[in-house]
Design a protein that fits this description.
Layout: E1 2-7, E2 10-12, E3 18-26, E4 31-39, E5 46-52, E6 58-61, E7 69-74, E8 79-84, E9 93-101, E10 105-108, E11 112-116
Parallel strand pairs: 2-11
Antiparallel strand pairs: 1-3, 3-8, 4-5, 4-9, 5-6, 7-8, 9-10, 9-11
């Protein structure tokens, strides 16, 4: 059994920064990918950023966050972070972390709310 727990959400003013964290508890796991998604009411959950492990490790970002957000993580420690800078009101959403792991498929965290408002 693997569980993901996010933290770091909250209220921030436009132009500010937040850092989200996601930790995995449970059995040791082999990761294929780990990433962050976000969702606003009435809309689908969209990819924000993801690290994909393989022969080479690659990071992908949504166009809307390129240059402002940075995903990082250590697959061996099953932890990941999302550094969010220059936040805008349109970044307001519930942010979810997700992993794809051998034997577990996709596992989601419970979500953490980020509100960007003055």
């Amino acid at each position: 059994q693997v569980q993901l727990v996010e933290s770091g959400g909250g209220l921030v003013q436009p132009g500010g920064s937040l850092k989200l964290s996601c930790g995995a508890s449970g059995s040791a796991i082999m990761l294929y990918a780990m990433g962050w998604y976000r969702q606003t009411p009435g809309k689908e959950r969209d990819l924000v950023a993801e690290i994909r492990f393989g022969i080479s490790t690659t990071s992908v970002y949504a166009d809307s966050v390129k240059g402002r957000f940075t995903i990082s993580g250590a697959g061996a420690r099953n932890t990941m972070y999302l550094q969010m800078n220059s936040l805008k009101s349109e970044d307001t959403a519930v942010y979810y972390c997700k992993i794809r792991a051998l034997g577990y498929g996709e596992v989601w965290g419970q979500g953490t709310l980020v509100t960007v408002s003055s």
